[in-house]
Structure formats: structure tokens, C-alpha cells
Amino acid sequence: HISFDFDGVICNTATLKKSIFKQVLLNNNLNENEFNLHLDESRGLDRYSRFDYIISRLKSNLTNRYSIHSMVNDFKILYTEALSKETLELDYHLHHLLKLLKNKGIFTSCISASPHSELTSIISRMELNTYFDYISGGPPSKFDRFKKLLNTIEISNSNTLYIGDSKSDFDLSKELNIKFIACAVYNTMDDEWMNNITTINNWNGLS
User: Fold this and answer.
1) In whole angstroms, how far apart are CA 191 and each of 63, 150, 173, 187, 194?
2) Inter-residue contact 50 to 72 (CB < 8 Å)
3) What average pLDDT does the segment 52-81 reach?
4) pLDDT digits (tens, 9 = 90+) for 105-158
5) Which value, to the nearest 10 degrees, does the dihedral of the CA atoms of residues 103, 109, 112, 118 take?
6) Cα–Cα distance measured from residue 196 to residue 170, given in angstroms and rounded to the nearest whole number
7) Which tens digit of pLDDT belongs to each residue from 33-42?
8) Please, is 138 exposed, middle or buried when counting C-beta atoms within 10 Å of its C-beta (0-12, 13-18, 19+)?
9) Neighbour-count burial of 66, counting CB atoms closer than 10 A to its CB (0-12 exposed, 13-18 middle, 19+ buried)
10) Do 3 and 37 meet the contact criterion of CB atoms below 8 Å apart?
11) Is the pLDDT of residue 207 over 60?
């Protein structure tokens, strides 16, 4: 079983999302120099959890649930508009790899922190539905959905590989006792957590 995160792995939407997070935080009069580090640290979390993570670490009065929900709603509006103008292209070599996995009958999933309706819409737009046996966006948490899938399919955790682009993906894999590969195709990552972790810097040669 090979599972893929979506943003920053299947598609370079993580960069766009980061810019929208910045825009929303700046619109709420938060200091970019103060929130940038926490924005990077929270990569891979769902939107509410990411805003909550950032705000809780800043000296800000935007700590109530209403403020965070408001930011999530602003993010959705801005991201939907920006995404509609993007040309979503799949890496040629990754496309070949997905075809190969499909032809070999390997169970393949896409598990993302993105909202489920948004995730399925983008995957349909990119015409990738046929390559995944299971597609899941939030809520609930990525951990809960992954655990439920592993309890459902007749494939052991030791025979499961997750390809993600964030420390939260790595931590998830450790907690579930599954294999992990870090994807740095779209984001250069030199974080400490990546030491001694197998990393994909490009999809060329894997297919």
C-alpha cells in the first residue's frame, strides 16, 4: 500500500496555500516576522489547526474560536479564487509512477489535510481519480482517517508507505508504525527532523 499526501507531493499547491495563509494573517494585522517560523512549523496541519497553532504562539488577542473560524473562512474564499486561476499540472514522471502502480495492482491512496470536497474536486480536475483506490480529505483528522483505512484494508502497517512533505506527516507515520519518505520535489527542506530520512528530490527515475 502506497499513500500520498496531496499538497506539495502530488501537486505544487502547498506554495500557493502558504501565500494565502500569509495573506490572511497579514489581513488580521499580524506581524510576518513573528508568524513566519510558526507557519513553516505547522505545515501539513488542517487549516483550523494551523491557524490555531500559529495564533497560540503569538502575542495576539485573536485567540478565540470565532477569530480562527473567520480566518478559515477567509482562507477558503481566497484560496478557491486563486486556485481557479492556476494551471494544475502533474509531473510527467509521477504520472508514469501512478500508472505503473495501477497496472501492478498496488493499493494506492491519497490522504490529505485538505477538506474532502476540495481534494476530490482538484483530483477530478487533474483527471487522477482512476489512479487512487482511496481518496480522503478532512475532517476528521488525517490520523483518524489513516487509522480507519489501515483497519479496513487487508494490508499490514509494515507494508504501507506514506509519502509526505511535512514533519506532521513524518510524525503521523511514526505513530502508525508505517514507512515514510519525505517529498522535497516542490519544497526544499533542510529541517532537522529530516536527518536520516529517505527523501525524494525529483520524481525522475522512480517510475
Assistant:
1) 28, 29, 17, 11, 6
2) no
3) 86
4) 999 999 999 999 999 999 999 999 999 999 999 999 999 999 999 999 989 999
5) 70
6) 12
7) 999 989 988 9
8) buried
9) exposed
10) no
11) no
Cis-peptide, bond into residue 140, ω within 30° of zero: yes
Which pairs from 91-95 meet CB under 8 Å and 24+ separation?
91/185, 91/203, 92/203, 93/202, 93/203, 93/204, 93/205, 93/206, 93/207, 94/10, 94/203, 94/207
Sheet holding 2-4, edge to edge: 134-138, 108-115, 2-4, 161-164, 179-183, 199-200
Give strand pairing partners of 3.
109, 162
Question: What local confidence, expressed as pLDDT, does residue 8 receive?
Answer: 92
Q: Quick one: what percent of the chain has pLDDT higher than 70?
A: 94
CB 32 within 8 A of CB 143: no
Q: DSSP states of 104-140 as a string?
A: TT--EEEEEEEEHHHHHHHHHHTT-GGG-SEEEEESS
pTM for this structure? Answer: 0.91
- Which three cell numbers, joined as nine digits, stand for 143? 490520523
Kindly report the average pLDDT of the chain as a whole number: 91
For cell 495576539, name the residue.
60
Closest CA to 85 of 16, 26, 137: 16
DSSP lists the bridge partners of residue 81 as none
